[in-house]
Design goal:
The structure is a single chain. The protein is of the alpha/beta class. The chain has two domains: about 1-90, Vaccinia Virus protein VP39 (Rossmann fold), CATH 3.40.50.150; about 95-255, Dna-directed Rna Polymerases I, Ii, And Iii 27 Kd Polypeptide, Chain: A, domain 1, CATH 3.40.1340. Helix content is about 30%, strand content about 15%. It has helices spanning about 20-30, 45-50, 65-75, 95-100, 105-115, 160-170, 190-195, 245-255, and strands at about 35, 55-60, 120, 130-135, 145-155, 175-180, 200, 205-210, 210-215. The strands form three sheets. Strands 3-4-5-6-9 form a five-stranded mixed sheet. Strands 1-2 form a two-stranded parallel ribbon. A two-stranded antiparallel sheet has the order 7-8. Strand 4 and strand 5 form a beta hairpin. Helix 4 crosses helix 5 (about 105-115). Keywords: Methyltransferase, Transferase. Belongs to the N(4)/N(6)-methyltransferase family. This is Methyltransferase.
Amino acid sequence: MARTTDPDRLGYPTQKPQGLLERIVQASSNEGDVVLDPFCGCGTVVAAAQKLDRQWVGIDITYLSIDVIASRLRKTGLTEGKDFVIKGAPADVLGTDQLAARAPFQFQYWALSRIPGAMPSDRKTGDHGVDGVLHFWDPAKASKAGKGIISVKGTIAVNPGMVRDLAGTVDHQDADFGILVTLQEPTDGMRTEAGKAGVYKYNNQREIPRLQLVSAADLFKEFLPLQLPPEEVRNGRKMTVIAEPGADEAKGGLFGE
């Protein structure tokens, strides 16, 4: 298994070291061959095959895994649509409607994958409607740890009560802000309720609405209509180090690559 200190570690309990899989791929195939991983998880085989100039096909049942692999490939300089393609993900709003009706949890995972830094909640029940979390560094906080929560609603009907419920959950979870993702466009009444929640000031300076609403259609836009903490402080993983970082730590030591 990959060590917890391994720079390629992505948090999967069964993740193998990339170096080991590179040796296996190299010994069992030639450049240009196709490597198939039908249970690709966090994509270590895919990364190894790509590095060794093999063609590859990776298959997984969850959008969460596919998003992890896509992110991993992007960090190596590859571009989705040019260097690799993702098949099976919704291509438009009709696709999201069908996914939400067929597999509600997969719709949640897909929606979370479209919000930079968001990670699924560990709990499926008793979570007060929290489907995802976004952890980030806030230097103005005593703990330095900030948190946003995300609720995904795949129902056809939407109403202001959903916003009020999220407001209560933000308070209950002691979160800094909440994001409500809906299959349908939010109503005017929902936007009015969200506006009542006020703002959270990141680093005591940057104002971020405490409640934000986005639709499935918004998740296809090039520029996501969300106000979030700066990208360099968003990570997705819960922070375990709460000391003030130095310049090097701020880049990679705390949040990793």
